[in-house]
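Hi support team,

I've been running sequence recovery on a batch of backbones for a student project. Most finish fine, but this one hangs at about 90% for roughly twenty minutes before it completes. I'm not sure whether the input is malformed or the queue is just slow. I've pasted the structure tokens below so you can try to reproduce it. Let me know if you need the job ID as well.

Thanks,
M.K.
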């Protein structure tokens, strides 16, 4: 019974942390036009601020991942949550674009540290037979955060203004209290604890081929998610002339699809295996591109957006379990998170690339062509890899 409670609390902490972290990231994509007018800059400047957030995430993964492998999962997670909450609240007070840009870089450090530590803590507590399902639930927090950002854009922005969109980011600080009082330390970490920081780098060095593969895999995963999400609200406004309220409603809808997909495919991976389930999710997304990018009616766009995110986040729902299973035991706090965040560093110009492609090929073909190439490449890399489904983390 105690183990079951520990699992529930660990997964809940990871889920809430990633949900609130994603909310703090995605509020910006609903504020591109507002902030551009507020700071008297071009919209492209806001895109670069988003890129900078993504680019700084590996710094957080490295710092908090090493701390998690050396000193345990709980304390670094608590410190991380408090850090990114403070930075997000500060974003609501920025007087100009320069301060905003610096704060979004600092926020990227916090965002980069949360996923790896939270995922390792949750997966190490999860029973092997439920790891796929709980992985999907954990990763769905990202989509829930996006959904909540859309809800805030729909109701908070028109009534309280853009600063409150950031001030709501202070709520995650309360999660630190929950982790401190309810979440037990990982037994797997206790059994595989490294003696010093040097041992962490030595272990990673011995597994450099695996680590390089995981970075490549995560880079393609980042192209997949950010390429289908970050500019899509702007695409709906510019290409289809949808009103901001309709765009927010669409974002809520397709993030519901993302949550469903993460849980369904995460659970499916316990039966089909991690790689086959990722391939199935990619096939679903690929089939939806015509409706998602070229739908001629609001209904067609809604069906395409809902279903493609089922596939995109369905594939993503398997990632926490898959990365933690293939990572070395002694550096499970560092390797999954650092590979994840180096992937986002390499994929950080996604929105800028699609924006440039839009100028040459049009918005629909820019999104569609980019994602078709990404999905095919990701399927090949996934197929070429290995998996260790059901691997025991602790004796």
């Amino acid at each position: 019974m105690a183990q079951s409670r520990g699992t529930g609390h660990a997964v809940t902490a990871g889920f809430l942390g990633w949900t609130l972290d994603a909310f703090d990231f995605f509020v910006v994509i609903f504020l591109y036009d507002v902030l551009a007018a507020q700071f008297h800059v071009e919209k492209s400047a806001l895109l670069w601020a988003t890129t900078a957030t993504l680019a700084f995430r590996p710094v957080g993964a490295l710092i908090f991942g090493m701390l998690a492998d050396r000193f345990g999962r709980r304390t670094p997670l608590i410190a991380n949550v408090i850090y990114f909450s403070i930075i997000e609240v500060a974003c609501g007070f920025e007087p100009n674009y320069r301060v905003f840009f610096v704060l979004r870089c600092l926020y990227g450090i916090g965002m980069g540290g949360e996923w790896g530590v939270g995922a390792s803590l949750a997966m190490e507590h999860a029973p092997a037979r439920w790891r796929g399902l709980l992985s999907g639930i954990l990763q769905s927090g990202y989509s829930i955060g996006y959904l909540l950002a859309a809800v805030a854009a729909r109701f908070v922005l028109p009534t309280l203004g853009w600063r409150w969109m950031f001030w709501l980011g202070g709520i995650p600080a309360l999660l630190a209290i929950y982790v401190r009082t309810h979440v037990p330390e990982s037994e797997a970490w206790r059994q595989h604890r490294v003696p010093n920081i040097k041992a962490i780098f030595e272990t990673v060095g011995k597994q450099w081929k695996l680590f390089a593969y995981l970075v490549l895999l995560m880079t393609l995963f980042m192209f997949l998610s950010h390429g289908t999400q970050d500019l899509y609200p702007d695409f709906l406004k510019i290409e289809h002339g949808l009103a901001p309220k309709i765009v927010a409603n669409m974002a809520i809808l397709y993030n519901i699809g993302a949550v469903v997909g993460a849980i369904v495919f995460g659970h499916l991976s316990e039966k089909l295996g991690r790689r086959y389930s990722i391939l199935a999710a990619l096939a679903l997304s690929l089939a939806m591109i015509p409706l998602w990018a070229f739908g001629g009616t609001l209904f067609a766009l809604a069906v395409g957006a809902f279903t493609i995110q089922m596939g995109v986040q369905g594939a993503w729902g398997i990632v926490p379990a898959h990365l933690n299973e293939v990572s070395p035991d002694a550096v499970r706090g560092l390797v999954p998170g650092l590979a994840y965040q180096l992937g986002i560093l390499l994929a950080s110009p996604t929105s800028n690339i699609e924006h440039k492609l839009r100028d040459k090929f049009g918005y629909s073909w820019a999104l569609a062509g980019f994602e078709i190439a990404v999905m095919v490449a990701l399927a090949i890399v996934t197929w070429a890899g290995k998996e260790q489904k059901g691997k025991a983390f602790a004796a």
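--
Follow-up from support: It reproduced on our side and the slowdown came from queue contention, not your input. The two ends are 18 Å apart (CA to CA). No action needed from you.
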